[in-house]
Write a structure and sequence with these properties.
The protein is α/β, with parallel strands linked by helices. Helices cover 55% and strands 12% of the residues. The protein has a five-stranded parallel beta sheet with strand order 2-3-1-4-5, with helices on both faces. Helix 1 packs across helix 8, helix 3 packs parallel to helix 5 and helix 4 packs antiparallel against helix 5. The relative contact order is 0.21. The protein binds thymidine-5'-phosphate.
């Protein structure tokens, strides 16, 4: 399988990945602001979610019963992703938009494939099928030790956050493996830094992609 994005799309597909409580949502929000300051109006979206159907599935998969079978869970994530790609992400990329997305298929590979032990290859194949092989152009990995992430957690833990820390260690190890395997699209950021430093690193990582976009046309 190739990690290369489908270059027939004029848009730019940016995804954010990381373990739970790594500061991802904050950084996605700050990046959204920054992109707007660059004259870009990105499609801001997330998984699970991003569509009305996806948001309903999000509720079920994150706050649903604890006895959801791991394969059921994997299929629910793949189902919401397939619909999200077909109705929102792909049309946006086709029309030249920048898509800024909180989590995509690498989350399923790390969480369901590795941490739930369903098999990295099987989960990758399932999601490639579900998305017609759509890959991000660039993936920002916010890398954080799960023990540190745990101390940052606020509020009641959800279904996945109730998993033991070993689960998050497996997630992190798989993200590292993905970053090695797809070094061309992965940018690994040290999320243990303060918010501004993390954001500065993200901007530096994304700047070449934004410059290329500006060179091509105005998206
Ligand atoms: P979030 O907290 O970043 O919004 O993500 C929600 C949870 O869903 C988080 O624990 C990661 C998990 N998740 C998966 O297990 N597989 C997936 O494919 C996605 C998108 C999220």
């Amino acid at each position: 399988m190739s990690s290369a994005a489908d270059t027939t799309f004029p848009g730019l597909f940016i995804t954010f990945e990381g373990g739970d409580s790594c500061g991802k949502s904050t950084q996605v929000g700050l990046t959204h602001q920054w992109l707007k300051e660059q004259g870009i109006n990105p499609v801001l979206t997330r998984e699970p979610g991003g569509t009305p159907l996806g948001e309903q599935l999000r509720e079920l998969v994150i706050h649903g019963p604890d006895d959801v079978d791991p394969r059921t869970e994997a299929l629910l994530y793949a189902a919401q992703r397939s619909y999200h790609v077909a109705t929102k992400i792909r049309p946006a990329l086709e029309s030249g938009r920048v898509v800024l997305q909180d989590r995509f298929l690498d989350s399923s590979i790390a969480y369901q494939g590795a941490a739930r032990d369903l098999g990295v290859e099987e989960i990758r194949d399932l999601n490639i099928w579900a998305t017609y092989s759509l890959m991000p152009d660039v993936t920002i990995l916010l890398d954080l030790d799960p023990e540190v992430a745990h101390t940052r957690r606020t509020g009641e833990p959800d279904r996945l956050e109730r998993e033991p820390t070993t689960f998050q260690h497996l997630v992190r190890a798989q993200y590292h493996a993905l970053a090695d395997q797809y070094a061309d699209r992965y940018r690994v950021i040290d999320a243990a830094q303060d918010i501004d430093s993390v954001q500065a690193d993200i901007r530096a990582a994304l700047t070449p992609f934004i410059q290329k976009l500006h060179e091509g046309d105005s998206k």
